[in-house]
Amino acid sequence: MERINVGVLGATGMVGQRYIKLLENHPWFKVTYVAASPRSAGKLYPEAVKNRWLIGADIPDDVKNLTVQDANEPKLALGKCRFVFSALEMGKDEIKALEAAYAAEGIPVVSNASANRWTEDVPMLIPEINYSHLDVIAEQKKHHGWDKGFVAVKPNCSLQTYMIPIFALIKAGYPVKRMTVTTLQAVSGAGYPGVSSFDMIDNIVPFIGGEEEKTEKECLKILGTVQNGKIENASEPVVSATCTRVPVIDGHTASVNLEFDLPEDKKPSIEQILKVWEEFTSLPQELKLPSAPEHPIVYREEENRPQPRRDRDTEKGMACVIGRLRKCSVFDVKFVALSHNTKRGAALGGILNAELLKAKGFFD
């Protein structure tokens, strides 16, 4: 298969670097265009990230000879790539306008940024859950008068820690009415340089700006439906979230308590829940997308798992690793979940979104 040429916006930042490394030797995509801020424009990529390459492996050979372009000039990407991954780091209004400018030039945007997550006709994708939201792209293009361009985004990284197992239960006929979530989020989620070492060593920070609002609301869009050319949010579950930053490099953990919207005699047993999780697969697995985990949900029987250092790279960092499923004395059940925030929750999750879009013909 001939690989598709792709670009990376925000290519010199932490997430942009992760995209570039993860796309090395990708069977479908090849990085042929990199763009960043004007201060990096005109430099060869290695020079632009000198003393700032954070991935812990060499810069891919395909990218070493690429000259960084100004991400604020979408026309520069024409003819260089079929679509772009957006890892832009700027104000939300600026990102929203710039992603729209790329789409207007006929360049689809697969975004890691949060700016368009609440745009009604922009799908916010976890491919195992809401692949049907791709249907809204036709209305998005019609609304803007775009021909080939469009914008698709991924949700907040911490949601991907637990949304797939919750969706699996909903799909199996066990709707969730209410839930509480306490996240223990890795420092890499704050980007680079992120939270200072003085704040994180021997410490936990019990606040991440805007994170609790995202946790409580984004799940409702993910579980929503496409109606009348826009995504209508679901009404349940009602979510109460507490989000904390902990001294872990990679891997977001969440403690989750669920109440099912079912009569007592219809609520699932622990054994039924485990069976649902063990058997769950979805469209990415059916399509055998290159970045899709064979097992989207992996359950650990050990009483002290999952743990970030031991479990974050399960299924190449793309699985939701679950443990400690047990009865809850306030709600119905509770469990601990873990995912790799810079892989499933960021760049590799964005790549999986692009693989789904390609498989469905959106780059044709």
UniProtKB/TrEMBL annotation:
A GO molecular-function descriptor: NAD binding
Pathway the protein contributes to: Amino-acid biosynthesis; L-threonine biosynthesis; L-threonine from L-aspartate: step 2/5; Amino-acid biosynthesis; L-methionine biosynthesis via de novo pathway; L-homoserine from L-aspartate: step 2/3
Residue numbers annotated as active site: C157 (acyl-thioester intermediate), H252 (proton acceptor)
Regions of compositional bias (Basic and acidic residues) in chain numbering: 297-315
Annotated region described as Disordered, given as residue ranges: 293-315
Single GO BP term: threonine biosynthetic process
Domain of life: Bacteria
Annotated ranges, domain Semialdehyde dehydrogenase NAD-binding: 5-137
Leader sequence residues: none
SUPFAM superfamilies given in the database record: Glyceraldehyde-3-phosphate dehydrogenase-like, C-terminal domain (SSF55347), NAD(P)-binding Rossmann-fold domains (SSF51735)
EC class: oxidoreductase
Keywords, alphabetical: Amino-acid biosynthesis, Diaminopimelate biosynthesis, Lysine biosynthesis, Methionine biosynthesis, NADP, Oxidoreductase, Threonine biosynthesis
Keyword Nucleotide-binding: no
EC assignment: 1.2.1.11
InterPro entries, per database record: ASADH-related, Asp-semialdehyde_DH_CS, Asp_semi-ald_DH_pep-lack, NAD(P)-bd_dom_sf, Semialdehyde_DH_NAD-bd, Semialdhyde_DH_dimer_dom
Role this protein plays: Catalyzes the NADPH-dependent formation of L-aspartate-semialdehyde (L-ASA) by the reductive dephosphorylation of L-aspartyl-4-phosphate.
Similarity comment: family membership: Belongs to the aspartate-semialdehyde dehydrogenase family.
Protein name: aspartate-semialdehyde dehydrogenase
Organism classification: Bacteria, Pseudomonadati, Spirochaetota, Spirochaetia, Spirochaetales
